[in-house]
Specification:
Blueprint (H helix, E strand, L loop, with lengths): L10 H7 L1 E3 L5 E3 L1 H14 L20 H8 L3 H8 L8 H10 L4 H10 L16 H9 L5 E4 L5 E4 L4 H4 L12 H6 L11 H20 L4 H13 L1 H8 L9 E7 L3 E12 L4 E7 L5 H11 L22
Antiparallel strand pairs: 1-2, 3-4, 3-7, 5-6, 6-7
């Protein structure tokens, strides 16, 4: 199966999104995205969540601008200028106050600060080099599907059992091994999107991608993927516009596998230190039918060709990760 390449944004687009500021240490911040993110968070909050009376008719959902300014301890004019992407660069104190006022989660707060360029050192792009130790670990998980992705969701390495879920990626070019692209290549009207778990998984993946977008400001790979999917998938564009931010963590998945039948397992996301990579591991409960089915799939791989260490190279089927 041939997968298309991401179309990177133009230099003009990137420069219009991220602006330089600061004396001495030059940093970049995304004025428009910061404004859009604050607006989306304000619209999600209800007055009673932040200790304000909820009476009266409201023309728009969420908090009023005056209420956010009051909670954050800034002037209404100052907040409005930030929200309209025309204000000055906010200080760390203002960002912290806005995060508290809007009840941001840890991931959302980090994303807010990164949009504002509050990084102490320049941030390189997502790491793609998988260390030998991680490859050895993948190879040792003979009866557990596992694979490694970078912050952009490119699959970097996998073990033999994972090929029953994401396909054998050796036949696919590295630039085409992206889980999020595969996910949103499905038709927006497809039956797959009627599954609440699949929909929740896709939403969580987009929220995690947005968190990476904040961690790596101006990264051409991430910006290119986002631009491509916003243009080709209305469903992705809608989820991206929601400005949800959350780093992927564990999730329980229930899937009907074409070879193994009904499976239920915990999808654990293990963060690899220093590389910002994630090892995604499908954990079956000991003694469960899913564990037995994983073992039967592993038995199919007992050949020198398929049982090698973490095949580095795609998919014969849409991934279930």
């Amino acid at each position: 199966m041939r997968l298309g390449l991401a179309v990177p944004p133009s230099r003009r687009t990137r420069e219009a999104s991220w602006e330089a500021y600061g004396d001495g240490v030059v940093r970049v911040w995304n004025r428009a995205e910061l404004a859009a993110f604050l607006r989306s968070q304000r619209e999600r909050r209800l007055p009673d969540e932040v200790g304000l009376p909820g009476g009266g008719q409201r023309r728009t959902p969420g908090l009023r601008r005056q209420e956010v300014a009051q909670l954050a301890g800034v002037s209404v004019d100052y907040y409005v200028r930030i929200k309209q992407a025309r204000g000055p660069h906010p200080s760390r104190q203002v960002l912290s106050a806005l995060a508290r006022a809007l009840l941001l989660t840890r991931d959302e707060r980090e994303y807010l600060f990164r949009l504002a360029g509050e990084n102490s050192v320049p941030v390189p792009g997502p790491g793609r080099e998988v260390t030998p130790a991680i490859r050895y670990l993948l190879d040792s998980l003979v009866e557990t599907p596992a694979y490694v992705v970078d912050a952009k969701y490119d699959v970097l390495a996998w073990n033999a059992l994972a090929t029953h879920f994401i396909g054998d990626l050796r036949a696919v070019a590295p630039a085409d091994r992206n889980l999020v692209r595969w996910m949103f290549r499905r038709p927006d009207s497809g039956e797959h999107w009627n599954d609440p778990e699949a929909l929740a998984f896709a939403r969580a993946s987009v929220a995690d991608l947005r968190a990476a977008y904040g961690r790596y400001p101006g990264d051409p790979g991430i910006e290119g993927l986002v631009a491509e999917l916003r243009a080709t998938s209305a469903r992705f564009a809608g989820m991206w516009a929601a400005h949800e931010v959350e780093v992927r963590r564990r999730i329980v998945k229930r899937v009907d596998h074409p070879e193994a039948g009904r499976l239920e397992f915990e999808c654990q996301v293990l963060h690899v230190a220093d590389s910002d990579q994630r090892m995604i591991v499908y954990c079956a409960a000991p003694g469960s039918p899913t564990q037995a089915r994983f073992r039967r799939l592993a038995a199919l791989n007992r050949s020198p060709e398929l049982d090698r260490v973490a095949q580095t190279a795609a998919p014969t089927r849409v991934p279930m990760a």
